[in-house]
Amino acid sequence: MKRGDVQKTILACLNIAGILTLAAVAPNTIQLLHYLPGVNRAKKKHYIKSSVTRLKEKGLIDFVTREHKTFARLTSKGKLRLRQYQLDEIKIKRPNHWNEKWHIVIFDIKEAKRRVRDQLRMQLARFKFYRLQQSVWISPYECEEFIFMLKTAFGLGREVIYITADKIENDKKLREVFGLTD
Q1: Closest CA to 99 of 140, 54, 149, 43
Q2: Which of 15, 83, 146, 181 is the most exposed place for a label (fewest CB within 10 A)?
Q3: pTM for this predicted structure
Q4: How many Å apart are CA 55 and CA 57, to the nearest integer?
């Protein structure tokens, strides 16, 4: 089991619970890790402690003290990272027969959000969208839910628009790219 998997588990636990006491984080996470293969029992506490420390250093979690108890909670950056982990697990269904509709994603994201814009492009490329223009990407597969998750993960709203089209002028090359030729 990798340290990143432990961090994902901790972030997911914090996301579900919202806020957890530090005393509760480690034992509960250790119990979850007990069922996962590849975790040396003697190293569990060390994994958890070092993972929590790294999450804090990365700004993904922070700690608050209330009534003499210390609690861990996700930061906005931690919520974003968790959504990105969730995106990594998504699959776009590729049906056996194309319904002859094009699914288009267009976006206009300001330079101030360049990093987010670049990450959005990387995700679209990873899921085999074809770049028609710099900020226009296309797929023959239904992907509205995926685009909604991307918008949520990256904190985007009206900057990203999803379109379903029946026809695109001169789509012969697109059909070839996606293997949709007759």
Answers
A1: 140
A2: 181
A3: 0.63
A4: 5
CA neighbours closer than 13 Å in the CB half-sphere of residue 85: 17
pLDDT (tens digit per residue) in 3-30: 567 777 777 777 766 655 444 444 455 4
| DSSP one-letter code for 137 | E
Q: Are 98 and 142 in contact (CB under 8 A)?
A: no
CA gap 134, 118 in Å, rounded: 11
Sequence-separated contacts (24+) of 129-138 with Cβ below 8 Å: 129/105, 130/174, 130/177, 130/178, 132/104, 132/174, 135/106, 135/107, 135/108, 135/109, 136/104, 136/105, 136/106, 137/104, 137/105, 137/106, 138/102, 138/103, 138/104, 138/105, 138/168, 138/174
Residue 102 is given by DSSP the state E
CA–CA separation, 85 and 172 (whole Å): 36
Tell me the three state secondary structure of residue 97: coil
> For residues 25 and 52, is the Cβ–Cβ distance under 8 A?
yes
